[in-house]
Amino acid sequence: MQVTLWYFADCPNWRVADDRLRQALNETGNTDAEVRLMAVETEEEASAVGFAGSPSFTVDGVDLFDGARPAGTLACRIYHTPTGLAGVPEVADLVAALAARRP
Predict the structure, then answer these.
(1) Angle at CA 69, nearest 5°, toward 26 and 66?
(2) SS3 call for 103
(3) pLDDT of the chain, 103 residues: tens digit per residue
(4) Residues 23 and 71: beta-carbon distance below 8 Å
(5) How many whole angstroms separate alpha carbon 37 and alpha carbon 14?
(6) Is 63 helix (H, G, I), strand (E, B) or coil?
(7) What is the C-alpha separation between 7 and 40, in angstroms, rounded?
(8) How far is 13 from 88, CA to CA, in rounded Å?
(9) Which residues partner with 34 through β-bridges?
């Protein structure tokens, strides 16, 4: 399983996202998953990779939260959580999304 956390450096949420992602991977038994941190540094790069906002999570190249349209710009991403809109999904949301991606 190849897990990628896409972010841009000025996003205030990406470090929390990394912590929550690793916790979710542990909780789902995916401790051997390779996690890559991919910085998106320019508007051109964001457009070229179809960046859906920071932070974004992909598993084997597929967005973990399907509802996002690629913004193609350096923007923060918003997630629906049980407590409302947030800049990072809850660990439980990541666990559920990872479990849904299991073969």
Answers:
(1) 35
(2) coil
(3) 899 999 999 999 999 999 999 999 999 999 999 999 999 999 999 989 888 999 999 999 889 997 666 677 899 999 999 999 999 999 999 999 999 887 6
(4) no
(5) 10
(6) strand
(7) 6
(8) 6
(9) 2
